[in-house]
Amino acid sequence: MRSQDPIGPAFATAIEENLAKLKKRLKLAKRGDPAGIHDARTTIRRLRTALTVMAEANLDRTEMLASEDELHEIERILSKPRAADVLLGMVRKQQRRTREPLSELAEKLEGRSRRARKKARRGLRGVKRVIARLHERSANLADAFVEERSPKNPTKAVPLRISQMTHSALFRRYEAVLAYEGLTRSRDPDVLHHIRTECRRLRYAIELFGRSLPNAKIIVDDLRAIQDRVGKMHDHHVAAGLVGKWVDVGKLDDSPPFVHFVDHEKAKVEALRRRAPPRIEAVLAPRFRQRLEAVLDHRL
């Protein structure tokens, strides 16, 4: 997107580009390919960002939110096989690192992964209809919103160009990050994970606007760093919780290898949790807001 692009055709192009990627990645996901599952979820999240931004700008609001809900359900369907793949990778890494006998745990996770993939394949049967509806909606957008007056009230103006909506779209998402200002040092990993989610939404919105914000890399890198670090913390948190639960209920015995694995994951969570606040607080600080404003105003 460029600053002076008409918003209808610009968003239509963004949707079509992401749909082309999504179709390829869903083919891999249906085969159980871990990278395909991960990449499909990422593309879905980018599409959901585009749809919510359009809805906020009153571009076919009802239809955009309906499509966003459908994509959210597909993302949810893919979340369990993705989580199983991540946990299995962590167990195998621990096996290589410590040589501890974790084969029973790995086998249980492999079974969990197989079941999750099978369930996901069933859940994805209706995805072609969802994609077809999105193609139809993007085609409608391509020729829409070329008048500067609202069709419902001709005395009201509506945004026509990308530059007329970037500020509101990005600051709305930045304010969702700012809402966590007093919670950056929370000991609850789930709180930090929610902060990560809001940072990701802001980052994807910035990247959605593409070439209309040519100097955005300076702030995108900060947001990506939070995503990466807090994402790793969350993975270790989930691993410790699941395996700990299996030990507690007798699905795994309380032998040293499994106890050591849980302890190792908890230690990783704590180490990453302690290192997260400075990065998050940097994004909450006035300097980051100033840089965001400078990017939006093309002063960088």
UniProtKB/TrEMBL annotation:
Classification via InterPro entries: CHAD_dom, CHAD_dom_sf
Record-annotated CHAD domain positions: 4-289
SMART domains recorded: CHAD
Gene3D superfamilies cross-referenced by the UniProt entry: CHAD domain
Stored Pfam families: CHAD
Protein name in the entry: Adenylate cyclase
Naturally occurring in which organism (per UniProt): Labilithrix luteola
